[in-house]
Design brief:
Blueprint: H1 5-21, H2 50-57, H3 66-71, E1 81-85, H4 92-104, E2 122-123, H5 128-142, E3 147-151, H6 153-165, E4 176-177, E5 182-183, E6 188-190, E7 197-199, E8 205-211, E9 232-233, E10 237-245, E11 264-265, E12 270-276, H7 295-303, H8 323-354
Parallel strand pairs: 1-2, 1-3, 3-8, 8-10, 9-11, 10-12
Antiparallel strand pairs: 4-5, 6-7
Helix pairs in contact: 5-6, 7-8
C-alpha cells in the first residue's frame, strides 16, 4: 500500500469526524416497498406520459448527458444501487464518499441508501444469501434490476452474490426484506414485467463491478469458498466490470498486473477488465465525492467513454483523484439506468397493447 499507516489513520479519522457531525432527517423508504406485488402489479403503478416514454426510448444508453439525467431519467424509476464496502473499520466511509458522488451526479438518493437504516453501503460481511434475497425483493417492487458495486472484500462479496443468484451454492434461496432485514417464507418473487412466478435463483442484476478484489483478501476465512469462483462471472449479471490496480499488494493478484486479475464469463455475461494506474490506492479508490463539486470535472466524467487502460491527460483546477474509476463506473450506471427504464417502458407499452 502506498499510503503509510499514519496517513490512512488521519484521513479516516477526518472522514469519521465529519460524517459524525452531519445529521439528516432523510426518509429512505418509499411507498412502493409496502405494496403487495401479487395483488397490486408493480408495472401498472407506472404511468409514463407518451411524450416522456418517447424521450426515454430515444435515449442513447452509451451517451447520457447531465441534461438528460435531469430532464428525462429523473422522471422515471432508477435501479437500486447496492454498494458493498470492504472490511476494515471505518473504510465504509470511503464507500459513503462514492455514494455521495453518485447522488451529486444526479442519481436518486433513495435508490442508494439502505431502506432499513439509511446506510450508504452494505458490509462485505453481510450474508451473501441475504444480499441475493434483497436483489430479488428490490426487483419485484421496483421493476428495474439492481446494480452492485463492490470495493476490496466488497468486490469478492459482489461476485459471491452473483454466484448465489446463479444457484452455484444452493438450489434455492429465500426472499429477504431489506426494510425489516428479515427472511420471508418464500423462494420466489412475482416478476414485475410479466407477473409470473420467478425463483430467486435465476434473478439477475443489470450491472456489477469489483475493484481491488483478490490478493491478500482471498486469504480471509469468509472468502475461502470463493477461491475458485472469484474471476468467474456467471449469467446472473448482464454486464460486469473488474478493476485491478497496478502494485496493489492488498487486493491484486500478482501485484495487480496480468491475466491473474482478469474476470471471465462462464456463460453469456458481458465482462470487461480495466487496469487502473499504479498510482491509485487500494484503500482510497472509492473516495470520489470531491469530483462532483467541479463542473469541468463533471462534464469530463459525463463525456467519458470506457477504456481498458484509461489515462487522464487533461488538467483541472481541483483534485482528480480516482477520476478514472469513478468515470468508468458512472458511465455503466448511466447506461444501465437507461436500459432498465427503457425495458420497463417497452413492457408497459406491451401490456397496454395486449389489453
Amino acid at each position: 500500500m502506498r499510503k503509510n499507516n499514519a496517513s490512512l489513520l488521519t484521513v479516516l479519522l477526518f472522514l469519521l469526524f465529519f460524517a459524525g457531525c452531519a445529521t439528516s432527517q432523510y426518509s429512505h423508504n418509499i411507498p412502493a416497498y409496502y405494496i403487495d406485488p401479487e395483488n397490486s402489479p408493480v408495472l401498472e403503478t407506472y404511468a409514463f406520459e407518451p411524450s416522456l416514454a418517447d424521450r426515454i426510448l430515444s435515449l442513447d444508453p452509451d451517451s447520457i448527458t447531465e441534461e438528460e439525467i435531469k430532464d428525462v431519467l429523473s422522471h422515471g424509476p432508477a435501479p437500486r444501487v447496492i454498494n458493498i464496502h470492504g472490511g476494515i473499520y471505518p473504510v465504509h466511509l470511503l464507500m459513503e464518499s462514492f455514494s455521495k458522488f453518485l447522488i451529486f451526479m444526479g442519481y436518486p438518493e433513495e435508490k442508494i441508501r439502505a431502506p432499513s437504516d439509511g446506510s450508504y453501503s452494505y458490509s462485505c460481511y453481510e450474508d451473501s444469501e441475504q444480499l441475493a434475497g434483497y436483489v430479488a425483493w428490490f426487483y419485484e417492487r421496483e421493476a428495474v434490476r439492481p446494480l452492485i458495486i463492490g470495493h476490496s472484500q466488497g468486490g469478492i462479496q459482489t461476485v459471491k452474490v452473483l454466484h448465489q443468484l446463479s444457484g452455484n451454492f444452493h438450489d434455492r434461496l429465500s426472499v429477504w426484506n431489506p426494510v425489516t432485514e428479515e427472511k420471508e417464507d418464500r423462494f420466489f418473487i412475482i416478476d414485475p414485467l410479466n407477473k409470473s412466478e420467478q425463483p430467486v435463483v435465476g434473478v439477475s442484476v443489470a450491472y456489477a463491478s469489483a475493484v481491488g478484489s483478490g490478493g491478500l483478501t482471498r486469504m480471509l476465512p469468509n472468502q475461502w469458498d470463493m477461491a475458485n469462483k472469484l474471476r468467474s462471472v456467471p449469467d446472473s449479471v448482464s454486464e460486469f466490470t473488474g478493476f485491478s490496480i497496478g502494485m496493489d499488494v492488498i487486493g491484486g493478484d500478482m501485484l495487480g498486473f496480468g491475466s491473474a486479475n482478469e474476470y471471465k464469463p462462464n456463460g453469456k455475461a458481458s465482462v470487461r477488465n480495466v487496469q487502473l494506474p499504479a498510482s491509485y490506492s487500494h484503500v482510497f479508490v472509492p473516495m470520489t465525492r470531491h469530483l462532483a463539486k467541479n463542473q469541468e470535472i463533471r462534464d469530463w466524467i459525463n463525456a467519458y467513454k470506457p477504456q481498458d487502460k484509461p489515462v487522464l491527460t487533461e488538467k483541472f483546477s481541483s483534485s482528480t483523484a480516482n477520476i478514472l474509476w469513478a468515470a468508468d463506473v458512472w458511465y455503466s450506471i448511466k447506461k444501465h439506468w437507461t436500459l432498465e427504464i427503457q425495458r420497463l417502458v417497452r413492457a408497459q407499452q406491451e401490456m397496454i397493447h395486449v389489453n
